[in-house]
User: Fold this.
Amino acid sequence: MKTVKLTPALKSTLWGGQRLKALYGGADMENIAESWVLSCHQAGPSVVTCGEYAGKTLDAVIRENGKAALGAHCKTEAFPVLIKFIDAADKLSVQVHPDDTYARVHENEFGKTECWYILDCDPGAELIFGMEKTLTKAQFRACIEEQTLLDAVRHVKVKKGDFAFIPAGTLHAIGKGILLAEVQQSSDTTYRVYDYGRLQNGKPRQLHIKKAVDVTDLTPSDPSLTPCGETTVLDGYTKTLLADCPYFTLYKADVNGTYTDAADADSFVSVVVTDGSGVYTDADGSLALQKGDSLFIPAGKGDFTITGAVEILRTSI
Assistant:
């Protein structure tokens, strides 16, 4: 299978903004809240942009080429990760995601551990990240029902370049004025507990209080906002390990010259361009890259390079 460039699935919600339209169009949409730049999820699959697979969903192309395209580390039939850009022109709801065990029983899909890389944000922008102090389940439910939850959660100021790792079970929310890249398990399960009294089509959006009480970690989390690994300086680029967990490994590379890498038989590689422009090259040829582009590089593809002045997120499993 050849490396493919992907066109994202675009999502509009009441809290979305206008910044992603500059990358992806969507003139017929009121806003673009999310662009799913690497997705085989039925709620929004990515589509191959060009070449022999043009117009097909990534999921269909992988099925045509066999599970070897995902690599030996992929132990499930379903595609394991989902990568998106999120433009929060307004606050997202306060929410939580279940782990795999709960999600398989109640939702018939993966749980959702995720992480965020802040691409841009307004001055003073913040995240909600876990609890300020330990609560019992009864106290947590009371905070939701009495609408005092915002006093019980941890509010964390962010700036461009910050990174947050959010295990399943962590209560969280993206604040107003934040543009970020999210790498997550391939899941669309969200349990919403507080939505600022907003209405959609004249009605409050649904809350999921019982399930949220079941799955939320009610002890304080550590919002360190730093990568889990060191930055390595190499010839033509630097490489920083952002996250390494059972579900995905994520690096950021800042390229000013030539970046060298390989997709071995263990895992596919996703490359998402978060800034700048460049050229991707492997044994099959070259693809031009610009901000917002997403590549799926199949397992076993071998050596590849990216040349230019470009920032990328590199994900594998």
